[in-house]
From TrEMBL:
It comes from the Bacteria. This is Dihydrofolate reductase. InterPro entries: DHFR-like_dom_sf, RibDG_C, Riboflavin_Biosynth_HTPR. SUPFAM superfamilies: Dihydrofolate reductase-like. It comes from Lentimicrobium saccharophilum. Pfam families: RibD_C (PF01872). Residues 4-169 form the Bacterial bifunctional deaminase-reductase C-terminal domain. One of its GO terms (biological process) is riboflavin biosynthetic process. GO terms for molecular function: 5-amino-6-(5-phosphoribosylamino)uracil reductase activity.
């Protein structure tokens, strides 16, 4: 059995923000093209578990964008918790402990959907295995950064770089601990 990997697939502005002020994601629309998902469907097909931050969950579920998570076990990380509802579990425990437990189980890779706090915790705990960043050619100036301050230096191994006619550039890395 090959060990499960913990993977992040994320879009940022050129200046490193995953959302603008007030969680505004409208900058993503600048690269929307009919029939182009920038590899997201292939990535999602390699995962069977989603660990997602509560703010991210609230944003995607209010926008009606939960379809990529169908047929997956979903853990919503929330300090307040909520009762389980079908394949969605609101988890208020230790994130690191949850990820270690999920990695020990058989299955496909684990998909991370969250902000800088979750990503930082996974990097500091040495649990995030790969990062795929889709850089959108727009400068936001401020907002929610992809990475929080205080992460110790990490080496990354470049796996591939892809450019698209929309101007989006995708870089994929393995995290070296």
């Amino acid at each position: 059995m090959q060990p499960r990997k913990v993977r992040l697939f994320v879009a940022t502005s050129l200046d490193g923000y995953i959302a603008g002020p007030d969680h505004d994601l409208s900058f993503l629309q600048t690269v929307e093209r009919a029939g182009e998902d920038y590899g997201y469907a292939a990535y999602a097909g390699e995962t069977d578990t989603v660990v997602i931050g509560r703010s991210t969950w609230e944003k995607v579920s209010s926008d009606g964008v939960t379809s990529p998570f169908k047929e997956k076990q979903v853990y919503v990380i929330s300090s307040s918790g909520n009762p389980e509802s079908g394949p969605v579990v609101f988890y208020s425990g230790n994130l690191t402990q949850l990820i270690r437990e999920l990695k020990s189980l058989a299955g496909k890779d684990i998909q991370i959907e969250g902000g800088p706090q979750m990503i930082g915790e996974l990097l500091n705990s040495r649990l995030l295995d790969s990062i795929c960043i889709s850089t959108i050619p727009v400068l936001l100036g401020n907002g929610i950064p992809l990475f929080r301050e205080g992460l110790y230096p990490l080496k990354l191994e470049l796996l591939q770089v892809k450019g698209f006619s929309s101007g989006l550039v995708q870089t994929e890395y393995n995290v070296i601990y």
